[in-house]
Specification:
442 residues; alpha/beta; D-Maltodextrin-Binding Protein, domain 2; 2 domains; two-stranded antiparallel sheet; 62% helix
């Protein structure tokens, strides 16, 4: 066991000193920041001036349509054919034609002809104005006063709360699960990336016969554990650097873009009611809002548990990957072994939407406790809270963590037997019967 730190150091330094490690470490935060910057830039493009020519077959019913920020309307009593000619005249300012057909009151539908496809925000803002006018016209036709309608019109909201046997209430915020899903995807990606790194390292040493020299002074178990833990430290260092660099770049993007971003135009396409009711025009104020989704996440709990499930999941699967690397001699054979091993992770990923919608279903509870799927599913469930905060029962989290540790120890024991026998096996790939005999006799 005293030689594990030496192997760990060698594995760690041999990887962090590579140019590819530095490139990937710097490139991932930059790519994330570019995606974020492009998203903000596209939001700003939605605010560019649009000039819409309105053709109303019910003229002048819709003449009260009003200009908005970034949207100018030109209301004329003309035909659609004439409007199309006007839009394509040289020097025309019109960017689109809003055609309101004669049967619009019955069909509740119209057409928007544009030179370029409009964004979702622009389209929703146009729809909102037309909806209000149609609604008012129907009230007039049915002789219903607007004041009476406003009193009758009801927007119902159902807010779920959890209550315990002591009568304590806590609000359920299931949309927080999307943040947990982000953590889960990161764990899934890192387990696959670093697990594959361990497998290839073992396979390369076996193929190049380097391992025959190494195990003359190092036990196979020490070699395997040194590789697994060394790559784990590489992963933790990379995650730490990604977090620091991403935070720096995010602040830089805020500094350059936020001053010109108007969030009020985004309200109509928000997916959650809490965010949809925000009236801020400054994203920095939004980020300080206690109802904002990120501010409802207990990161003091999520981040340590993220590190635990990343390490636990990685160590579990890395041991299996190391065993696979000891069994095979070529890259072409890896898929036959890797696919069955990673199937539980794939199942957890496929089941993620169901867990987000119902984090306390039987399948969600089972997959969050089952060790081979818990690193993904438990991160989604824990984002809604743990214990007295109205989230998961603490016993489920503790049971999940305990089973992950116990399973890892068992897998390490089994994988070490396969590794010890398979690392020196060359030629024909061992059969499952042969592998079973290694496990039985080792």
């Amino acid at each position: 066991m005293s030689k594990i730190p030496i192997i760990l150091k060698r594995e760690f330094l041999s990887r962090v000193r590579k140019r590819s490690f530095l490139i990937v470490t710097l490139l991932v935060p930059v790519l994330i920041s570019i995606v974020l910057a492009i998203s903000i830039w596209l939001s700003l493009q939605e605010n560019q001036k649009q000039h819409i020519l309105i053709v109303d077959d019910n003229y002048p019913v819709f003449q009260q349509i009003k200009n908005e920020k970034g949207l100018s309307y030109y209301y004329q009593d003309i035909s659609l054919e004439k409007a199309e000619k006007l839009m394509f005249l040289d020097g025309s300012i019109y960017t689109g034609i809003l055609y309101l057909p004669e049967n619009i009151m019955a069909s509740n539908a119209s057409k928007l002809y544009v030179k370029k496809q409009p964004g979702a925000i622009t389209q929703r803002r146009i729809e909102k104005q037309i909806e209000n006018i149609i609604e008012n016209q129907k009230l007039l036709y049915n002789k219903i006063p607007k004041e009476i309608y406003n009193k009758i019109n009801t927007e119902f909201h159902l807010t779920p709360f959890k209550i315990n046997e002591n009568g304590e209430e806590s609000k359920i915020n299931s949309d927080q699960a999307f943040v947990g899903f982000g953590f889960a995807i990161l764990i899934w990606f890192m387990i696959m990336m670093y697990g594959t790194m361990v497998m290839r390292s073992v396979m390369e040493e076996k193929v190049n016969r380097i391992v025959e020299v190494i195990i003359s002074s190092v036990k196979p178990f020490e070699l395997m554990m040194g590789k697994i833990i060394g790559v784990a430290f590489v992963g933790l260092l990379q995650v730490l650097m990604w977090g620091i660099l991403s935070s720096i770049l995010f602040v830089a993007i805020q500094f350059f873009f936020i001053g010109s971003l108007d969030l009020t135009s985004l309200q109509d396409i928000q997916t959650t009611k809490e965010v949809g009711r925000v009236n801020h025009t400054d994203i920095q104020v939004l980020l300080q809002d206690p109802n904002f989704i990120l501010n409802r996440i207990n990161f003091a709990v999520m981040i340590p548990l993220f590190l635990f499930y990343f390490l636990g999941g990685y160590l579990l699967y890395a041991a299996l990957f190391a065993a696979v690397g000891a069994l095979i001699d070529s890259e072409s054979e890896t898929q036959q072994f890797v696919t069955p091993l990673t199937l539980p992770l794939l199942i957890a990923y496929v089941m993620a939407p169901g867990v987000i919608n119902n984090p306390e279903s039987i399948s969600a509870v089972f997959t969050s406790i089952f060790p081979f799927t818990s690193p993904v599913t438990m991160m989604i469930r824990m984002s809604i809270g743990v214990g007295d905060s109205g989230g998961l029962p603490i016993w489920q989290v503790l049971l999940s963590m305990a089973l992950l540790i116990l399973t890892f120890l068992c897998i390490i024991w089994l994988a070490s037997k396969i590794y010890r026998a398979g690392i020196l096996h060359t030629g024909k790939r061992p059969s499952f019967k042969k592998i079973f005999s290694w496990l039985k006799n080792a």
